[in-house]
Amino acid sequence: MKIERVDDKTVKCFLSNEELEEYEIDYKDFILRSDKAKEVVREIIEQAEVEVGYKPPKFAFDLQIMMLPDQGLLLTFSEKEPFEGKEGEQALEFIRQITDMIQKKGVQKTVVPPADNGPAQTGQTEKTDRDQPGNPEYAIFQFASLGDVLAFAKALPGNLRVRSELYRMEEQYYLYLHKGSASYVRYSRACIQALEFADLYGADEISFLYLKEHGECLIAEKALKKLCWK
């Protein structure tokens, strides 16, 4: 096994035909991501850390496979950015939409405690750096009918590990969608898809608390899975 450092984020590894036979592995195993291939990849990464000071990527890596006739395989590992390609663009677009919605609300109204035992007054809170939104981890979508909610639920992959709750308020249906343990790209992709069936109701704590107080909770957990029996 010969490992070469290309740059900070890229390493190459050459596996000879003899080594492939020793591992009892071939080109197809890497394409299909078999358990044997995963073990070999882990071994390569560990060896690359020791030999060339390679630091495994924080998010994920791309693996390119090149067959070298009568010689073996050349594997190239390169770090993949968290928001790369078309899916990443969708994720960033979702972040922009949510952020715009929060910022357009501007200054929130709040109740100012009475001074000198006087009456309470309605005031305004000043936004601070802590109030600035980062990557939103939940959003609430407003559906015109339960049928639209069902259609959205059925359009999602069954292994999507998001958290979801379903509410009804004034003849409208509201789906609370939290990132849960899903990757941010998969979560944001689901949110972008939700906009094909619903409107974005909110992505802030005030909207969620209002919904919980005034809405009727129909499904308190795993709403999407329960709706489509996935």
Quaternary state reads single chain
Distance from N terminus to C terminus (CA atoms, Å) equals 44 Å
How many runs of DSSP E, i.e. beta strands? 11
* Overall morphology: elongated
Q: Could you tell me the CATH topology label of the largest domain.
A: Alpha-Beta Plaits
Rg on CA atoms, Å:
25 Å
Number of helices: 8
Unreliable stretches covering 5 or more consecutive residues: 105-133
Question: How are helices and strands ordered from N to C?
Answer: EEHHHEEHEEEHEEHEHEH
Key words describing this protein structure:
39% helix; 2 domains; alpha+beta; five-stranded antiparallel beta sheet; Alpha-Beta Plaits; four-stranded antiparallel beta sheet
Fold and architecture overview:
- With 230 residues, this protein is an alpha+beta fold.
- It has helices spanning 17-23, 27-32, 35-52, 85-105, 146-155, 184-194, 205-214, 223-228, and strands spanning 2-7, 10-16, 60-68, 72-80, 109-112, 121-124, 138-143, 163-169, 172-178, 199-202, 216-219.
- The chain is built from 8 helices and 11 strands.
- Helix 4 (85-105) packs across helix 6.
- The strands form 3 sheets. A 5-stranded antiparallel beta sheet has the order 10-7-9-8-11, sandwiched between helices.
- The chain has 2 domains: 2-80, no CATH class; 85-107 and 134-228, Alpha-Beta Plaits (2-Layer Sandwich), CATH 3.30.70.1950.
- It is elongated and about 70 Å long.
